Amino acid sequence: MHYAGLAPDMDALLALARRRGLLIVEDAAQALDASYRGRPLGTLGDAGCFSFHETKNLTCGEGGALVLADPQATARAEIMREKGTNRAAFLRGEVDKYTWTDVGSSYLLSDILSAVLLAQMERFEEIQEVRQRVWSTYDEQLATWADKYGVVRMSAHPDGVHPAHLYWMTMPSDAHQAGLIAHLRERDIVAAFHYQALDESAAGQRLARTPRPCTVSRAASHRLVRLPLHAELSESDVERVLEGVTSYQVDA
Q1: Which end of the chain has less Cβ packing within 10 Å, N or C?
Q2: CA torsion through residues 189, 217, 32, 38, sign
């Protein structure tokens, strides 16, 4: 997963996959408009999965997009999307009737949701400009406070471009994650943590096995705080968030 639209060392990952005969599926749900060494995330592996969930840079409430490198896989995905039929080929005039040819389900967006999404696509540069401005303001204005208290700010890969999907910080202790979130809530500012280590979740404990404890994931989930970031934030909103964060004293 390209968390917050930040890529890992994709060259090394792809080389490893090729040596082992593995396929790479990029979870690019948070990576629309992000890139790695000049290439869009979601197009580097064998498949890329994007999301239009309500929290994403482009949204229609739910749904997503699938990008496939193999034309044969793309053709089959089109059939699976159409309930296992070749209806899309029929609509293009490639066959005289359509029929059930494979497994599938109904993965098509409704016309209304598609229209909502299209309107945002047409304004995508404007949306991204606002999000990047908010992200940069957070990063610049929180630098002194974060350095003072040992708070680690989000940083992008030197060879990558992030999409300003999230702005997160890692607090110096578990207690300060809860402390900052509560401090901001008292000021009517919604901040949140994110995800949970697999071996801490109920389903993970019941259904999965890990060779060793997920200590890195646990540390991240217990210390990470996400600040509000969306295209409707005003300058006064951003200033209020900054005042709320910088008024929190980590060593108090």
Answers
A1: C
A2: positive
Contact between 163 and 31 (Cβ < 8 Å): yes
Q: What are phi and psi of 149, to 5 degrees?
A: -105, 5
The domain of 32 spans: 3-122
**Token digits of residue 114:** 């598609």
Query: How does pLDDT run along the chain (252 residues), one tens digit per residue?
Result: 999 999 999 999 999 999 999 999 999 999 999 999 999 999 999 999 999 999 999 999 889 999 999 999 999 999 999 999 999 999 999 999 999 999 999 888 999 999 999 999 999 999 999 999 999 999 999 999 999 999 999 987 788 899 999 999 999 999 999 999 999 999 999 999 988 888 888 998 899 888 888 899 899 999 999 999 999 999 999 999 999 999 999 875
Domain count, the chain: 2
**113/148 same-domain check:** no
Angle between helices 111-122 and 124-141 (to 10 degrees): 60
Contact 181, 17 (CB under 8 A): no
Assigned domain for 237 exists? yes
Q: What is the CATH number of the domain that holds 142?
A: 3.90.1150.10
- Rounded CA-CA distance 244/189 in Å is 8
Bridge partners of 50, per DSSP, are: 65
Tracing tokens 């991204």 back to the chain, one arrives at 128
What are the backbone angles phi and psi of residue 25, rounded to the nearest 5°?
Answer: -110, 115
Q: Are residues 106 and 132 in the same domain?
A: no
Q: Count the helix, strand and coil residues of the chain and give each as a percent rounded to the nearest 5.
A: 45, 15, 45
